[in-house]
Structure formats: structure tokens, C-alpha cells
Specification:
Blueprint: H1 14-32, E1 36-39, E2 42-45, E3 48-50, E4 56-59, E5 64-69, H2 75-82, E6 93-95, E7 101-103, E8 109-111, E9 118-119, E10 122-123, E11 129-134, E12 139-143, E13 146-148, E14 154-155, E15 160-164, E16 171-175, H3 179-196, E17 200-203, H4 204-207, H5 221-229, E18 238-241, E19 245-246, E20 263-264, E21 268-274, E22 278-283, E23 290-294, E24 298-300
Parallel strand pairs: 3-7, 5-11, 5-17, 6-11
Antiparallel strand pairs: 1-2, 4-8, 6-7, 9-10, 12-13, 12-16, 13-14, 15-16, 18-21, 18-24, 19-20, 21-22, 22-23
Helix pairs in contact: 1-3, 3-5
Length: 301
């Protein structure tokens, strides 16, 4: 994937400033990771269970972490499928929408989550990666005032995201991830990368772009990757405020108080952290001001 060198407007204390930006996400991940650990290649902690899948085989010395969405009705139905010998599919972990985690195979055993895939000069990423399946319906189709998954379930407007996948030409509707899923995904990535000294964090869409679109644009994969791997040199995305005024708050929700005067239309901000409906941003013209804004009122510059 193409990388661009970071360009900063204030050369003085440049690295210090970048570290301050990355610190909240990192400290959150490390603090929350206290409850999870890895013992004998198994995840240990509250909200973790183990259901062994028969769909596995061979030793694994992982180099990468791969995120997927299940495109299924629920975590339970996906676990049933991934432990069914007829599916010929599996992953190491299934992350439910309530943040609970089910491990299907030890991290030193190969699972069948990547299929035909290529990354970093290697083919067949099953042999080189840990796979995390996140309970999410994937792309949706609008039906009246609801949004329908391929298996028929309808979702309300507050459960979906309109976004353009980086591999597609047009925007479409996607099932939103929950806040706890995103936090747990970050926590797991931090723990697994540190424990196994993994080289990269990628999506199924990265290693099989000709046939896969998961985990999709509703999941902040680039932010997770940058936070976990500390890739502070990457240039952050810029957005412009499209509303006449937009509150910038201390947290991702209307219940959090504003941290600054409302932002006016045309104000340019830098993306620090992306969630399903709220983005953490920093003002370009005042780098000391950062907070959360609703992403409905932002347009990429």
C-alpha cells in the first residue's frame, strides 16, 4: 500500500507533537489490555471463551494480523459455521458486538481465514497470520427506511454507515461496528502485535483485494494499524466542516461538553481517530485544540 511522508506545518518539537497525538489511543489500549493476556498461545481474560474448531492444521509462526467481518447474522451463528467441518473455514478469534471474544484455535496453529491471498511478497496468508472475525453483516441494501443484509435481516438507520470502500468507485451502506468492538479490536491488536512481534495489521481486503471487502470502511483499520504499530510518520487525513456550525466535544457523543467554540463551515481539521459516527480531530489552524465531532458533517479535503 502506498505511504506518504508526513508534512507538518510546525517543525519545532515535531516529534513531540506527534507523540502527544498518538498517546491517547496507545495508553487506552495498554490500560485496557491489563484484563487480557496470552498464555500458551491462548487468550485469557474476562469475556473470553474457547470453542475448538476442527478446521485447522499445521504449526503457525505468525507475522501478520488480519481483520475480517463475518457477514453473518450473529457471533453465535458465525462460531457455529466456523466450527462446522463442512464450512472448511475458521479463524483464531471471533469478536462479538458486545465485546465478548471466542477463540477457536491456539495462536500457534494455522486456521483457514485468508484463502487465496498475497501480502508482502508472500502467498497463502493462512500460513503467516492470525485471523480475527468481527461480528458484522457487511454491505447492506436500502429497503424503504431500513437496510437489509444478504441474509434478510433489516437494520435501522442508526446501525449503518454510508461510505465508499477504498477499492470501489461508489459509496454504499455498511453495517456499523459497535464502540466496544472497535475498542476490543484495538486492544487485541495491541496485545497480539506485542506478544508475537507481528510485522503488520491488515484487512482481508488488503490481502485479497480482487475478491474481498472486509472489514470494510465502517471499521477504522488505518487508525488501528497506526496506533498499534506507531506509524506516526504517515500523513493524517484532512476534513472540512460542512455544517454552518459544528460542536467539537470532549468525547464521542452529544452527552460530552464542547471543548471549544463551535467550528464554522469550511474549518479544516486533521483526523486523529475514526469511529463509526464520531471522529476525533485536531484543528489545523490551532493544533492545541482537539476533540470529537460527528462525522456526518465532515467532507474529506
Amino acid at each position: 500500500m502506498a505511504r506518504r511522508a508526513l508534512s507538518r506545518r510546525r517543525p519545532v518539537s515535531k516529534r513531540k507533537k506527534v507523540t502527544v497525538r498518538a498517546a491517547p489511543a496507545r495508553s487506552t489500549a495498554i490500560a485496557r489490555s491489563v484484563g487480557l493476556s496470552i498464555e500458551d498461545d491462548r487468550l485469557v481474560g474476562a469475556g473470553v471463551s474457547f470453542i475448538e474448531t476442527p478446521n485447522k492444521g499445521g504449526d503457525l509462526a505468525p507475522r501478520y494480523l488480519v481483520f475480517h467481518y463475518t457477514a453473518g447474522k450473529s457471533a453465535a451463528s458465525s462460531i457455529n459455521w466456523l466450527t462446522n467441518p463442512e464450512s472448511k473455514a475458521s479463524a483464531h478469534l471471533v469478536l462479538a458486538r458486545d465485546g465478548t471474544i471466542t477463540q477457536l484455535a491456539p495462536f500457534d496453529v494455522k486456521t483457514w481465514h485468508a484463502g487465496l491471498s498475497h501480502w508482502d511478497g508472500l502467498s497463502g496468508l493462512n500460513s503467516y497470520s492470525i485471523g480475527i472475525e468481527m461480528d458484522n453483516a457487511g454491505p447492506l441494501k436500502k429497503v424503504g427506511d431500513k437496510y437489509q443484509a444478504w441474509f434478510g435481516t433489516l437494520y435501522a438507520e442508526d446501525e449503518v454507515v454510508l461510505a465508499k470502500h477504498k477499492l470501489d468507485d461508489e459509496s454504499r451502506w455498511w453495517h456499523a461496528y459497535t464502540e466496544i468492538q472497535i475498542q476490543k479490536a484495538l486492544e487485541l491488536a495491541q496485545l497480539l502485535v506485542r506478544h508475537y512481534d507481528l510485522k503488520d495489521v491488515v484487512g482481508h481486503e488488503d490481502i485479497a483485494p480482487d475478491r474481498k471487502r472486509d472489514p470494510g470502511p465502517a471499521f477504522p483499520l488505518e487508525n488501528v494499524r497506526a496506533s498499534v504499530l506507531g506509524r506516526e510518520e504517515e500523513e493524517r487525513e484532512r476534513y472540512e466542516v460542512t455544517a454552518s456550525t459544528l460542536n467539537i466535544r470532549s468525547g464521542p457523543g452529544v452527552e460530552f461538553p464542547p471543548v471549544f467554540d463551535p467550528l464554522k463551515r469550511g474549518t479544516v481539521v486533521v483526523l486523529l481517530e475514526k469511529r463509526d459516527r464520531w471522529n476525533k480531530v485536531e484543528l489545523v489552524k490551532n493544533g492545541d485544540i482537539e476533540g470529537w465531532v460527528h462525522n456526518q458533517f465532515l467532507a474529506k479535503v
